[in-house]
Amino acid sequence: MIIRITEKQDLAVLYSIYTSPTVVASSKYLPTVSFEMFYGTIDLHSEYQVHLTHCDDKDVPNGHLGIFLNSMPRTKHTATFVIAVDESARKQGIGHRLVQVLTDQSDNWLNILRLEVDVPADAEDIVKLLEDSGFVVEGQKQTALFRNGEYVDMLMLARVINRD
Predict the structure, then answer these.
(1) 39, 105, 128, 151: most buried by Cβ count inside 10 Å?
(2) What does the pLDDT look like over 111-144, one tens digit per residue?
(3) Residue 18: exposed, middle, or buried by beta-carbon count in 10 A (0-12, 13-18, 19+)?
(4) Which residues pair with 52 in a beta bridge?
(5) Which fold does the domain 2-115 belong to in CATH?
């Protein structure tokens, strides 16, 4: 298994991962997002986005990490991110490896002090994965996400590095 830079030919497989029911349920994406719209959110040439793909032994993508850097001068030290793992590849440590790469890139290469993400409050596995990697719940947004006909609370998680 390898984690490498995302390439254009990966996008069709990543689209199928991001539109799978479990990923849609834990994200802000609509289940009916078009490939063109999905493709438009991933800019492989942007200096403000870093995209890495986890592949199996046959170089088939089964996970993705997108880091979104902030271009505003006063918040350049912050970033958000997305992580998705193919349903058939869950419980194999891929999410953990992608979070490790996220923190390594942020701490050692991107000069990011604060990583932040919103997660559905009922996504216990995701919250645990992030908490195990140093993220803390900073708050809860009530009825922040409309999912499958219901309003869902979102947890605001962040990982802050103190560089005194």
Answers:
(1) 105
(2) 999 999 999 999 999 999 999 999 999 999 999 9
(3) buried
(4) 5, 65
(5) Aminopeptidase (3.40.630)
